[in-house]
Structures are given as C-alpha cells and as structure tokens.
Amino acid sequence: MAASSNSTEGNWHPSSVLAYDALPNRRDDFESTILDPKSIPETGTDFYDRSLTSRRYALVGMVCSTIVSCSCIIAGTVTLANHGVSGVTIMTSNNNNQQREMLALTLNLIVTVCTESIGFVHSISLRSALASESRLRFNTNLRLLTAARGWSNPNGVLLNGIMVVLLIMSYASSSLAVFFDLEVVGYTTFDSIGFAGLPVLLLGVALFLQVVIALLGLQAAKILTWSSSPFDVTAALVHHTQLTPVPLRCMRDVSDLDVDRGPAKPSDTQPSAWHAHPSIRKVIICLWGVVIACAGWAAFVMYIWDKSPNSRAFFPAVTSSPALKSSPALTPQSWSFFPGIQSSCIFHAIPGANVQSWILGFVYQAGIQGPLTLGLHCSELIANVTRDERQWRCATGRKGLRTATNPLKPVFTDLCCLVLFFAKPFLHWMFGLSFYMYPFAAKASVDYLWISMGIAQIWNLCIALFIFASFFTLVALRRPRGPQPATYGHLQTL
C-alpha cells in the first residue's frame, strides 16, 4: 500500500485516501481451491488478500497442538494404567528447585503456544460467524466473551463457555503436572522431579477438546479471509455485501456516532482506545480487579499466618521449629523470587491421592487461577485493537502499508503483542510459584496433596500484575495525534 508522496501525518487530507491503491488486485492461485473447500468462487479480480499463508500457519499450529495433546493423553494414560490415580513418572533424579521451575515454565510456554494457535483459528471462525449475522462491528473481538447466535453454534454461548473452562483447565493442569518426588528420612528432603499422571492426562484432554471446538467452528463458518488486517476484512465484507457503508461519516472517528450533521472538521488529536472502544474500559477494569484481588489474597494469607500458627511452614516442608512460631510473615531473609528454605508460607494438606482429592485440588487451583487466565485473555483485545490502529495510521505515511505480508510479522514486531505473548506463560508460572499444590510422592507414588501459598511469592505476583496492568492502561489511554480519524479496527469507520 503506497501513499501519495505529499500525504503525511501532519497535512493529511481526505482526498489523499484516493491517491493510492488501498487494496491491490490479487487472483487466487490453484492452491486456494485445493486447500479450502469453502473458498469463495472466483468473481473476476479480488481486491483483498485471503491470506492463504495465515491459513497454512494456523493449520500447522493446530496439528502441533493436536500432537501435544495426544502425547499428554498417552503419557497420562500409561502412567495411570501402571501406577493408578496416584501414579507419577520420574523425569530426573535431581533436587534442584530451579530445575523444577524451569520445567514448569517450559510447560507453561508450550501451553501458551498451543492455546494461542487454537485461539487464532477460533477467532477467525467467530469473526466470520458474526459477519454472516451482520453483527461484526470491530475487526478484533474477545473470542471467549463474544458469541454467535444459537446454542448449537460452535461459536455460540455454550461452546464458548466450555472453551473458557478448558482454557483455565489447561493452565491449571500445567501448574499441577510438575512436582517433586520425595523421600522421607527424618526431615523431608527432595529426591527427584517427575510428572503426575492425572494432571498430564487432563492437560491433554483440555487441549484436544479446544482443537475439536475450533475445528467445528471452522467447519460451520464461511471464511472470506484469514487475514488479521482490518483493511482486508473490511474489503472482504464490502465485496461480499456483508457490510454496507453508512453515508455522512466523512472525517468522523469511531467514537463519533452523530452522523446527522454530516461530515466533520478533522481534529488535531484523536480519542484513545479507552474512549473509542466500549469493551476496552471493561478490560482495563478487569485487569485492575485482578491486581486488587491478588493484593487481597496476599493480605489474607498474612492474616492466616498471624492468626493460625499451626498453618505455618517454611518451604519446602512443614516444621515445628521454634523460629517458625515466632517469625513474622515477611522478613528480608524470607522475601525471594523462588521459594527457598526460608520462604514463609501457609499450607493445607489433602490426605490421600484418590480421585476426590485430585478433584478438590483442581477446584482450588482453577478457582484461584481462573481470574488471572481470563484477565490475560481479555488483554488480547487491547493489544490487537491498538495494532489495528497503528496499521491504519501507517497506511497514510510516506511508505504506506503492505497488507500482504508474513502473518507472524505484525505480531512479533508489535510491542504490545510481544509483551502479552511472553507475559502469559511468565505470569502463570509466577502464579505457580505463589500457589503450589505439590503432589507429595515417595517411591513414585503420591501420598497426599500439599497446598502451599508463599507470602513473598504472592506479593511478587502482585507487583508483576501491577506493572502489566499499568502498561496496558497507558496503551489504552494514549491518544493518537494528527487529523486522521481514529478507527481502532471499526469496520464502518474504515
């Protein structure tokens, strides 16, 4: 997309939009007919990109997610068949706590890559379903909190609700999968690191069901384009008469709904995403709600520490040391990033390792980790909406915008998208440091589940969430400069 040489951000004029070819002509190749059974028939020359490369990447991601899910199902099933519900698979004989945490971080990163791949396909099918119902207003939507009509619809309320549960279940299972196998000799000491069979099995089932639901949504929707570009989506909808331009909106931004007065005089500054997109405000409030909840959780744990000495522990074991009974909740020695030998925590033991114990443990884990998972999911809206706006403003620059590009490039060259991609596994991993439910095992068999809450680690998570929420709040409050009307991916404005 090439802009006129006289068109700049400072002296932008509505007539300059007509000075360049906004969406270059393209013809589908033979591959599109082979790979896409629902592809739209050729009608001469198309003026939008169907982004077959994005489809290939999406299908590769789905295949990889299926392989990971099936591997987890097989590993969990074999472990349960050989050792029962309390069975474990020993990975390494090493008592290094950092090594265990690195394995947990790696597993969280794998889960993030799989859920992001599945989420991309699910969001494409949801966008197409909303467009077919004439309900698609923005290029970017919250895929789990926005639903198409019909309970039986793969993108409807019912299956979207199941997707929410499965997403929370994926991260909760990954947090429970890696643990220490312990050998008790007087005091409890680390012996080796392993994977619990039941959490690994549930992780595989959760990922596999997400793949199935995403494929069902893909089968039910007519995909006009796989592109994430707001230009291609708008052009596709207009070309297939699923979007009708509303007149008298010249030079009006997305937040200006008053179209009765006709065209408006351009403004020097544009509204922020906070003011322009109604869902952005809800997302920011949700993020700060998670921060406040985390701070309240830390304060509650400190209160339990003061009022119930019998619930106190020094990581990694329960001890009756006199120093423990007289120790304050936080000291310079106990404040650390990783749980250490002097880390203060409170504990609750679930005796046995039967199905009921695991269910109770999962309820604890998912109930506390669920708000964090949903908060991070909602943050996708801020990252994607601001990315759409940057592409819109880049299109009128001197170099213009090339819409036909590698689909991964806009993600890995955008600061917000990069921060969010790495923040998801990192914050879930930090949650695992704060709320660690260890299946305590001896000789490759789980004896009981020990739920521990590290005081310093919860405050560390709270600080990280505060930084994360502050960053995305500043992004949402930033006001673009220049007379070019802000769109934030609003299709009618585009």
Percentage of helical residues? 40-55%
With helices defined by DSSP (H or I, 4 residues minimum), what is the helix count? 13
Strand order of the largest sheet: 4-5-7-6
The assigned structural class equals alpha+beta
Cα radius of gyration in angstroms: 26 Å
Number of strands: 7
H and E string: HHEHHEEHHHHEHEHHHEEH
Q: Shape from CA axes? A: globular
Strand share of the residues? Answer: 5-15%
Task: State the major sheet.
Answer: 4 strands, antiparallel
Mean pLDDT across residues: 77
Instruction: Enumerate the spans where pLDDT stays under 50 for 5 or more consecutive residues.
Output: 1-45, 184-188, 316-320
Terminal Cα separation, in Å? 15 Å
Description:
The protein has 494 residues and is of the alpha+beta class. The two termini are 15 Å apart. It has helices at residues 30-35, 52-83, 97-132, 157-177, 197-220, 230-239, 273-276, 278-307, 322-326, 355-394, 409-412, 415-434, 455-477, and strands at residues 88-92, 178-185, 187-196, 312-314, 344-351, 435-441, 446-454. The strands form two sheets. The protein has a four-stranded antiparallel β-sheet with strand order 4-5-7-6. It has a three-stranded antiparallel β-sheet with strand order 1-3-2. Mean pLDDT is 77; it is low at 1-45, 184-188 and 316-320. Helix 3 packs across helix 12 and helix 4 runs antiparallel to helix 5. It is built from 13 helices and seven strands. 52% of the residues lie in helices and 10% in strands. The radius of gyration is 26 Å and the shape is globular. The longest helix has 40 residues, at 355-394.
